[in-house]
Amino acid sequence: MSPEALKAQILELTREYSRLTHAAQRPGADAARPAFRPGQDVVPYAGRVFNEDEVEAAVSSTLDFWLTLGNEGHAMQEELAELLGVKKTLLVNSGSSANLIAVSTLTTHKLPAEKRLLPGDEVITCAAGFPTTVAPILQNGAVPVFIDNDPVTGNACADQLEGAYNPGKTKAVMFAHTLGNPFELRTVLAFCHKHGLWLIEDNCDALGCTYSLPLEEARELGLTHLIKIAEKGDHPWIRIEDGVLTAPTGSFGDISTQSFYPPHHLTMGEGGAVNIIRRPPLGTYAESFRDWGRDCWCPSGKDNTCNKRFGWQLGELPEGYDHKYIYSHLGYNLKPLDPQAAIGRMQIRKLPDFVEARKRNWNVLRAGLAGLENCFEFALPTHATGWSADGFTWDDSGCRTDCSWFGFMLLVKPDAPFAKADFARYLDEKKIGNRMLFGGNLARQPAFVQLRKERPEALRIVGDLPGADRIMNEAIFIGTYPGLSDAQLDYMIESIQAFCAR
Ligand SMILES: Cc1ncc(COP(=O)(O)O)c(C=O)c1O
Does 145 share its domain with 257? Predict the structure, then answer.
């Protein structure tokens, strides 16, 4: 039998094996899933959603045995860049690595002195969220400046930006779009524009969210890269309608990041991406930090892409020293494997359905839990002022968000007839997966408390952070991921209703 025929046979068997063994990981609405047994089966807060397509892709790529980032990786980078409308995407081995590269990129000596992030410079971030949005700032010797979070959206309080600004020291702003809810991009962009600051969007939890703002404001904010794409009229997520520009989160700032760890909007096992939104040179620096710090940009398995491999003289190296081994940065090796990218590419094809399922599941939960406002304060999309069965009401900013929800967040009210811990324990008993908003108020985490004790100048806190404390004390989230079936959503709603009725 030829190797091709043998491979085809292996892949056919792989698909059959996957159908037999992984039925529970199929999308929530898939008829081939095993029936949900309320109270016996766990309702995960998130997880991998896949079928035989992903397993076949992984096995096929593994049989080819290229292993390191190759054709699949390069294709996935291009597909993601296209989807987000960004100049370049680099795959990495995690969202945390993506954040590390994003911040490191701003430290390069190749940037003009006034734009370069130097030790002791400040990066404005917010207190509540995931630790590796903040850690790379410290790991690069810069100072994170914590502003507060709005407990209802989970996002940074953009009205505190001016108060946090430190002329000559502030170089960048870095926030996550919390739990798939875009932060207030218009205000944040205007602030960065006014002071000439970099904006890093941690889009790890928010792939598929869109943000809309008046076109004239988008022009004033210099969003020409998005306007040009929208004007072509054929992009699934970037468009102009009635004088309003809509585009995906992760495409507005300078650099953005993704995580493809299993609970996220798509998965490649471990994995992530750095998106270079509009300035191509940042892509060269980011790639250098990802790939050992080297100056050379040849992909794995290729030599002499620059056509002068032995024609460079850099640093104090002799003329003609092999460009492959010239290092312009103190870098890392944070690349993923090609079989992971093969899985990721299959997942990208399913992303529109995944995003729709997340929105739908959030709405089902919100409608099902309506009437429990005496116990809970429910999360709202940024710019929304309220929710009813007819939809959201919005503020008069002219901006809108369309959330690709990572989870369904609610705050247990301080005067509710139960404490948050009781509620979390009850959900656990009912086997309903639940999570805190990650690290809560990060400033209160042991790592940051220790840092403040040892080096108080290592970080700066603006105000008392009451919103981040409320998130820490009151917030909890349950799943919205595409693997949830109607039966599971009903069970979640009935269980929570029953708890509140006790
Ligand atoms: C906002 C945010 N940023 C970064 C990360 C880190 O991603 P990873 O787990 O892929 O390192 C996470 C993890 O969930 C996250 O929630």
Answer: yes
CATH, residue 448 = 3.90.1150.10
pLDDT at 299: 83
pLDDT at 83 (0 to 100): 98
Instruction: Give the chain's domain count.
Output: 4
Ligand 1 center from residue 155 Cα (angstroms):
15
Give the distance between the most distant pair of CA atoms in the chain: 79
Question: Which member of 235, 264, 323, 329 is catalytic?
Answer: 264
Q: Is 225 a catalytic residue?
A: no
Residue 176 near ligand 1, beta carbon < 6 Å: yes
Q: Decide whether any atom of ligand 1 lies within 6 Å of the 28 Cβ.
A: no
pTM (2 decimals)? 0.98
Residue-level pLDDT at 442: 98
Distance from the alpha carbon of residue 220 to the mean position of ligand 1, in angstroms: 32
The answer to whether residue 385 sits within a structural domain is: yes
Angle, in degrees to the nearest 10, between helices 338-368 and 486-501: 50
Do residues 202 and 228 share a domain?
A: no
* Residue 38 counted as domain residue: no
Ligand 1: which atom is nearest the Cα of residue 259? 10
In this structure, is residue 83 part of a structural domain? Answer: yes
**100 and 238 co-located in one domain:** no
204 in ligand 1 pocket by Cβ < 6 Å?
yes
For residue 336, is it within any domain?
no
272 lines ligand 1 (CB under 6 A): yes
Q: What are the pLDDT digits (tens) for 443-496?
A: 999 999 999 999 999 999 999 999 999 999 999 999 999 999 999 999 999 999
CA distance 341 to 220: 37
Round to whole Å and give the CA distance between 166 and 328: 30
pLDDT the model gives residue 300: 79
Say yes or no: 370 and 489 in one domain.
Answer: yes
Does one domain contain both 152 and 187? yes
The verdict on 396 and 286 lying in the same domain is no
Q: Are residues 122 and 254 in the same domain?
A: yes
Q: How far is CA 381 from CA 10, 200, 384, in A?
A: 46, 20, 5
Q: Is 312 in the pocket of ligand 1 (CB under 6 A)?
A: no
The answer to whether residues 20 and 457 touch, using CB atoms and an 8 Å cutoff, is: no
Instruction: Give every residue of the chain whose pLDDT is below 50, as ranges.
Output: none
Residue of 147, 278, 286, 160 whose CA lies nearest to 221: 278
| Structural domain boundaries enclosing 54 | 3-32+43-64
Same-domain pairing of 185 and 282? yes
Number of H helices, E strands in the chain: 15, 18
